[in-house]
């Protein structure tokens, strides 16, 4: 940035925008259109072109906006990507979670680090990109419902494929303390529903207990979890090195003396490789359809087992020759690469051929917690990265 004054002004503008963004209560699953319209207005005033994609109810929105190159070159376009949703707020906050509050060197508010801080920085820097003699396109990608199994991003990705946007460099600004993250496991979430036949507990042979069959289903999942450990790749970069499986909850039954006719199981797996997800689903589906369900139907022909996909977040694979990682490391001077346990939208962009890196301001240690905050200096580091991108994106 050219002068200390302009640098301070840019930082102050990012704080102002972050304050505005936090005030939008964009909890996952709820309407985020007001925030998207706010972002779209800022970018459109700068001459950006944009399009939106929606959920079925037209209340949750993705935005993809572009500041076009003044003189196109062979440089790959850059996508600055962030999700607009935040997790729900629990009790115990010392401040209003939807009012940005600065104390010492920290800015508190829901979404401050995960990940409205990054979005604020990109919007604050957008006027500088708009005035620059860009020789590559700069895209701004803001999605809905990332926190609930990346529901919004796949809709955007499909539209990008239709529009031929399948090359470039994408920076996902999740909170990493501006460190380069180049891989994470997938995250597949499911709910399996069991429907049996209610009856009096004194005659269990006349009913079909959905709870009991759900329990057998869970036991099978736990057996398969051990098989996933045996499938661990020899060169795995993750901790633990194998695909994991977790039972989130079993819900069913109404009383001690009533045979439960309904039950459901929430479970998830985090595969190291896609093949593990395919393996696990094939095994558990076969067990449910060929072992459990026929047994249930002997007593109650209308018994059912139905598995619902809540979300299947694509894993993010390490690429030793990543253009995205090389760009970021050239700007930060940090050549280290790390992996994380949480999921992001990175794998979705990577799947369509876009070189992707996860790197953004703030710490994941503060995400999803009471009194979430971002250290203000992290915003300055992010703005410095965006400035470096500008220097590499102007006509020589």
TrEMBL record:
CDD domains per UniProt: M20_ArgE
Keyword Lipid biosynthesis set for record: no
UniProt-listed GO biological process terms: L-arginine biosynthetic process
Entry keyword annotation includes Transferase: no
Residues passing through the membrane, by range: none
Domain Peptidase M20 dimerisation per the UniProt entry, residue ranges: 183-294
Matches recorded under Gene3D superfamilies: 3.30.70.360, Zn peptidases (3.40.630.10)
Alphabetical UniProt keywords: Cobalt, Hydrolase, Metal-binding
SUPFAM superfamilies hit by this protein: Bacterial exopeptidase dimerisation domain, Zn-dependent exopeptidases
InterPro entries the UniProt entry points to: AcOrn-deacetyl, Bact_exopeptidase_dim_dom, Peptidase_M20, Peptidase_M20_dimer, Peptidase_M20A
GO molecular function annotation: acetylornithine deacetylase activity; metal ion binding
Name of the molecule in the record: Acetylornithine deacetylase
Name of the coding gene: argE
């Amino acid at each position: 940035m050219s002068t200390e004054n302009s640098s301070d002004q840019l930082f102050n503008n990012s704080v102002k925008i972050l304050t505005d963004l936090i005030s939008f209560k964009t909890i996952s699953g709820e309407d985020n259109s007001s925030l998207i319209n706010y972002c779209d207005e800022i970018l459109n005033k700068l001459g950006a072109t944009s399009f939106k994609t929606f959920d079925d109810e037209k209340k949750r929105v993705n935005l993809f906006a572009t500041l076009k190159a003044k003189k196109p070159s062979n440089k790959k376009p850059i996508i600055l990507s962030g999700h607009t949703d935040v997790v729900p707020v629990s009790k115990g906050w010392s401040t209003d979670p939807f009012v940005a509050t600065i104390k010492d060197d920290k800015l508190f508010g829901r979404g401050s680090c995960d990940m409205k801080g990054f979005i604020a920085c990109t919007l604050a820097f957008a006027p500088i990109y708009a005035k620059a003699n860009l020789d590559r396109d700069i895209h701004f990608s803001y999605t809905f419902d990332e926190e609930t199994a990346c529901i919004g991003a796949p809709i955007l990705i499909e539209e990008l494929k239709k529009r031929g946007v399948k090359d470039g460099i994408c920076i996902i600004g999740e909170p990493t303390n501006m460190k380069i993250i180049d891989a994470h496991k997938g995250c597949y979430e499911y709910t399996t529903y069991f429907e049996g036949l209610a009856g009096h507990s004194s005659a269990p042979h006349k009913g079909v207990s959905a709870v009991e069959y759900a329990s057998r289903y869970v036991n099978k999942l736990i057996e398969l979890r051990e098989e996933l450990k045996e499938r661990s790749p020899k060169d795995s970069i993750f901790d633990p090195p194998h695909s994991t499986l977790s039972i989130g909850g079993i819900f069913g039954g109404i009383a001690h003396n009533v045979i439960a006719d309904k039950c459901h199981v929430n479970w998830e797996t985090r595969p190291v490789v896609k093949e593990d997800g395919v393996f696990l689903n094939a095994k558990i589906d076969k067990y449910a359809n060929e072992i459990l369900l026929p047994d249930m139907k002997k007593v109650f022909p209308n018994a059912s087992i139905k598995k619902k996909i809540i979300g299947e977040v694509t894993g993010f694979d390490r690429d030793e020759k990543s253009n995205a990682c090389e760009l970021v490391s050239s700007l930060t001077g940090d050549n280290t690469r790390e992996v994380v346990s949480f999921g992001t939208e990175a794998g979705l962009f990577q799947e369509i051929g876009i070189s992707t890196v996860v790197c953004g301001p703030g710490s994941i240690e503060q995400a999803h917690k009471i009194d979430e905050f971002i250290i203000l200096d992290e915003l300055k580091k992010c703005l410095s990265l965006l400035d470096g991108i500008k220097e590499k994106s102007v006509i020589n």
